[in-house]
């Protein structure tokens, strides 16, 4: 299947129709708690992160409270999260830098965010989009996989996929489309055994494992 501009537009229309009411699955109450949750979410499910933060945030919902912990204390707090030792170090470093460089506030500027320990491009984009309302596309494993399978955006790195998605998605929809792609990856377009038989994009997907009549505009 040759994926034309018309097909990409139809893919986005169906994604919006299916997931228009969905947002982030992570639980948070402030830019700081969102930042913590997103840092924890690397190689860890959002469901597991929400379990961890549910017990953390009543006591550790500000950088001031967090920096009072020792490294071993922080490791105990998040021991059931993947890569917990490295994340514990990053969380404490992030909280410390917020206090020393940003008056305890999570910065909105992209370069300031990625200067924090444990914060890469994806995390910065999520925080800017969800907490502060900036148009942004954060490319996680779901967005990367779904975008390439649909040939909505083709790239061998998250940065390339982000760049290509920004070309085909109107800026006003960047943040929303990020969630559409994530939820599609979670619910249907799994890494293994995608549920093509129930996929609303079946006849506009060049990677579909089931052959159907191609969609025509």
Helix-residue proportion: 40-55%
Radius of gyration: 19 Å
Strand segment count: 0
Which overall shape is indicated by the principal axes computed on the Cα atoms? elongated
Percent of residues in beta strands: under 5%
Look at the structure and give the mean pLDDT: 95
Regions with little confidence, pLDDT below 50 for 5+ residues: none
Looking at how many chains there are and whether they match, the oligomeric state comes to single chain
Descriptive keywords:
elongated; 11 helices; mainly alpha; 217 residues
Protein model, in words:
With 217 residues, the chain is mostly helical. It is built from eleven helices and no strands. Helix 2 runs antiparallel to helix 8 and helix 9 crosses helix 11. It is elongated and about 60 Å long. The model has no long low-confidence stretch (mean pLDDT 95).
Describe the secondary-structure layout.
Layout: H1 5-19, H2 31-40, H3 46-56, H4 63-66, H5 71-77, H6 84-101, H7 110-114, H8 121-132, H9 141-150, H10 158-168, H11 174-187
Helix pairs in contact: 1-11, 2-3, 2-8, 5-6, 9-11
Describe this structure in a few short sentences:
This protein is mainly alpha-helical. The chain is 54% helix and 0% strand.
